[in-house]
Amino acid sequence: MVISMKSKINRLLDLNIKNAKAKEKDYYLNDNDGLYLLVKTNESKFWRFKYIHPLTKKQKMISFGKYPKISLADARVLKKQCLDLLEEKIDPHSFFKNEETKNDIEEEKLKNVFNAFLENKRNKVSEKHFRKVKNAINTYILSNTELANKQIKDIKATDFEKVLKVCDGRDLIKRLCCYINNAFDFAITKNFIEYNKMKNLILLFNTVSKKPRPTLPPTELPNILKNINNSNIEEKTKLLMYFQLLTLARPSEAVKCEWSEIDLEKKLWTIKAEKMKMRRDHIVPLPELVIDIIIKLKQSSTNNFLFSSDKTKSGHISLETANNALKRMGYKNVLVAHGFRSLASTALNESCLFTADTIELALAHVDKNTVRATYNNALYLEQRRKMLEWWADYVKNASKFSIF
Q: Would you say residue 104 lies in a domain?
């Protein structure tokens, strides 16, 4: 190892460092007062600080990190901290190691792991879904101070069993166990733990099977359409139900549809990511029958929403409007607006005309593979357009009358 010693007046410049080339052997450039730049044979550059231990009087060396991530100015600040510690007879290596340990201990507390997990999740889901997850974690898990301040590596499944006993037997317990499981998987990626001890946490609780939303088979579609048409509900509510049925949209997506999302020329409805259950844009091809509905809605619209309302603070009709209408029509506990999606899915699958991917994309069921999902969204657009035109014809034929 070669050390290039320079006089005290010749301190390093950024230009010296940038121009420092690799040699046959590793070598040092001296910035004085114990600060050196190690230049490796592969031209990687690392900061080193050499000093005499205040008690043992032996030479020691610590690393400040890699250049340029640690700049010349940063390295000099770290050197100054070390020199100040040496003035107080404190070994810099021991001091920084203790500080690092303290930071690690704080970072690996359950509450901080969950906070980091939530930040990582924030940009991957809608704001509404993010708040739902965060509120559940804070309310049922981190509200227990003793558990929240425990090191994640020291937590056992029985710790969660005690804290979550209040949720046992409720559908909520499945979600909470899922959040915990995901947070522990996240902790593995951060090297806080080596394996996930919470994989089977759900087995400690009594779970309830989630009831599917009430729906009806496609054979009932003619009666459903007839009852909607003959009911005395408002015209806009009827159009909402037809719109949702024909586009396969979720109730929340339908009532919040804005004019800025509609492209009549391209016959597309682009639902922005923040409105979707998972934070990802969703494109809906619009059949001619839906275009007719949109044109009809334009005549009565009073704001930026297709299904505008002057009676609500949101500016659009209520999320429960279609459900309440179906109840008044005699479909209580038999059919809900969300059930239109299941009805359509059954009809499309039974037709054997369309691939499962095409149907799932039309329903905005998320592909866990982000790259594949983005690719499929574009690839299947024309297939989905043909499929929704077929579905519109299916609905039109089932109605046996003009739905307008």
A: no
Rounded to the nearest angstrom, the gap between the alpha carbon of residue 379 and the centroid of all alpha carbons in its chain is 23
In a domain, residue 211? The reply is no
In a shared domain, residues 189 and 152: yes
One DSSP character per residue, 199-268 reads TTGGGGS---PPPPPP---GGGHHHHHHHHHHS-S-HHHHHHHHHHHHHT--HHHHHT-BGGGEETTTTE
For residues 319-349, one letter each, b for 16 or more C-beta atoms within 10 angstroms of the residue's C-beta and e for the rest, the string is bebbbebbeebebeeebbbbbbbbbbbebbe
C-alpha pair distances (Å), 165 with each of 1, 159, 196: 63, 10, 21
| 92 membership: H or E segment, kind and range | helix 92-107
Name the pTM for this structure: 0.54
User: Strand, helix or coil at 6?
Assistant: coil
Give the integer Cα–Cα distance in Å for 377 and 373: 6
Q: Which helix (H) or strand (E) holds 282?
A: strand 282-285
Residue 210 CB neighbours (<10 A): 8
Structural domain boundaries, residue 386: 218-399
Q: Is residue 88 within a helix (H) or strand (E), and if so which, with residue range?
A: none
Please report whether residue 283 resides in a domain.
yes
CA–CA distances in Å: residue 133 to residues 139, 348, 356? 10, 33, 30
Query: What secondary structure letter does DSSP report for 19?
Result: H
Tokens, residue 320? 């429960």
Helix 381-399 vs helix 339-351: crossing angle, to nearest 10: 100
93 and 191 fall within a common domain: no
Q: What is the pLDDT of residues 225-269, one digit of tens each?
A: 999 999 999 999 999 999 999 999 999 899 999 999 999 999 999
Look up residue 127 and give its amino acid. E
The residues annotated as belonging to the active site are 250, 277, 338, 341, 365, 375
What are the structure tokens assigned to 51, written together? Answer: 């000093």
Q: Give, to the nearest 10 degrees, the angle between helix 381-399 and helix 370-379.
A: 60
* pLDDT tens, residue by residue, 114-144: 999 999 988 888 788 889 999 999 999 999 9
DSSP annotation of 35? E
> 22-47: b or e for each residue (b if 16 or more CB lie within 10 Å)?
eeeeebbbbbbebbbbbbeeeeebbb
- Tokens 């409805």, located at residue: 269
